[in-house]
Specification:
Blueprint lengths: L7 H7 L1 H9 L3 E2 L2 E2 L9 H4 L3 E6 L1 H18 L3 E5 H5 L9 E7 L5 H12 L3 E6 L5 H4 L3 E4 L12 H20 L5 H35 L5 E6 L3 H16 L2 E6 L16 E5 L7 H16 L3 E7 L11 E5 L8 H18 L18
Parallel strand pairs: 3-4, 3-5, 5-6, 6-7, 8-9, 8-10, 10-11, 11-12
Antiparallel strand pairs: 1-2
Helix pairs in contact: 2-8, 2-9, 4-8, 4-10, 8-9, 9-12, 10-12
Bound molecules: 5-amino-5-deoxy-1-O-phosphono-D-mannitol.
5-amino-5-deoxy-1-O-phosphono-D-mannitol binds next to helix 4 and helix 10.
């Protein structure tokens, strides 16, 4: 039931705040992350020296976002790999490896086969999944469910924010179990997480109509590029994937630092480029670098749509359009910056008269290899 929305996707984007809130529910006690499903499973986290996240598509981008915070909080090296690549390269894994799979459906065949492979080769396995009782969680040693609610539209939206939330919860849990995240620091991260649903709701309320308007104006666009740095990089990839699958437009995400290594050759007058601008409060250096990337592409005629935090005045004169997201702490911005990109892809597909719930050639759950 679309509940009065024009599509399941529109409904699911509107549910992004709840998807995060429901994934947090019952897992925070006195400012500390306590995941009841992981009770008694501390040995999954104490004896490991590395984490490999495996997933496909949007779930893999959630993994790439999660990597930064999990490494920082736990000081365990984290690799993120596409499930279908992982399995066919004879990866070096064993009892010191925790393989974390991420899957909305819990039925993606590539991810399932990778989890089985990991187990057979002695690794520990943890599943982050949105579907109770699905095959992947059943095949894993531990499960952290995302509670995004059923996702019907083929394009994954609310599941993505729930996956990042679950990864952050897991990271803080592992950090606590291993005694590496000081309690006050963990409490600050928890407070950031708890504030996310309200901030996503603000974006939906304040920016959605404007973004849909742009999308409408851009309905004839043939190519859109997305640039990001650090945690903004996987968000650029996610923005591009959503646009490809929903609006059938050539779209590519790049790490902003790669521009000079090739992609800048693509910039010609009128080329739309979304740029995810990192917070200047967190890293003045990274912020400066991204602003200079904007200058470089704009000098070559790009039309820049920046996603920047409120109050970042430096970006205003540089970009053609600025979409604002509320302030958030380090690592938490991706949970906000992705929302305008979901709205944009949906808006553009709608402006082209396409079926946003069921794009051509795609299935919600890819159960073949
Ligand atoms: O069910 P899963 O999370 O395992 O699905 C993984 C991908 O197939 C999925 O995220 C896909 O990329 C989406 N259609 C993207 O919107």
């Amino acid at each position: 039931d679309k509940g009065g929305w024009s599509s399941f996707m529109a409904k699911e984007v509107s549910e992004e705040p709840e998807a995060v809130a429901n994934t947090l529910r019952g897992r925070i006690r006195d400012g500390e992350v306590v995941i009841p499903e992981l009770d008694g499973l501390d040995d999954l986290f104490t004896g490991i020296s590395r984490i490999i996240v495996i997933a496909c598509g949007t779930a893999a981008y959630a993994g790439q976002v999660g990597k930064y915070a999990i490494e920082q909080w736990t000081r365990i090296p984290v690799d993120v790999e596409l499930a279908h690549e992982f399995r066919y390269r004879d990866p070096v894994i064993g009892p010191d490896t925790l393989v974390v799979s991420i899957s909305q459906s819990g039925e993606t065949m590539d991810t399932l086969m990778a989890v089985k492979y990991a187990r057979e080769h002695g690794a520990k396995t943890l599943s982050i999944c949105n579907t109770q009782g699905a095959t992947i969680p059943r095949e894993s040693d531990a499960i952290v469910y995302t509670h995004a609610g059923p996702e019907v539209a083929v394009a994954s939206t609310k599941a993505f924010v729930a996956q990042v939330t679950a990864l952050y919860l897991m990271g803080l849990h592992v950090g606590r179990v291993r005694g590496v995240v000081p309690a006050d620091e963990a409490a600050a991260h928890v407070a950031e997480l708890e504030a996310i649903p309200g901030k996503i709701a603000q974006i939906l309320e304040r920016e959605q109509p404007r973004i849909e308007q742009f999308a409408h104006w851009m309905a004839d666009t043939r190519s859109v590029l997305f640039l990001g740095r650090h945690v903004g990089y996987p968000i650029a990839l996610e923005g591009a994937l959503k646009l490809k699958e929903l609006a059938y437009i050539h779209a590519e995400g790049f790490a902003a630092g790669e521009l000079k290594h090739g992609p800048i050759a693509l910039i010609e007058p009128g080329q739309p480029v979304f740029v995810i601008v990192p917070s200047p409060r967190q890293s003045a250096e990274m912020h400066k670098k991204v602003i200079s990337s904007i200058e470089e592409i704009r000098a070559r005629g790009a039309r820049v749509i920046a996603i920047a935090e409120e109050g970042d005045a430096a970006v205003l004169p540089k970009a053609d359009e600025v979409l604002r997201i509320p302030l958030a702490g380090p690592f938490f911005e991706p949970l906000l910056a992705v929302v305008p990109l979901h709205i944009f892809a949906m808006g553009l597909a709608t402006a082209k008269g396409l079926d946003v719930d069921q794009p051509r050639n795609l299935a919600k759950s890819v159960t073949v290899e």
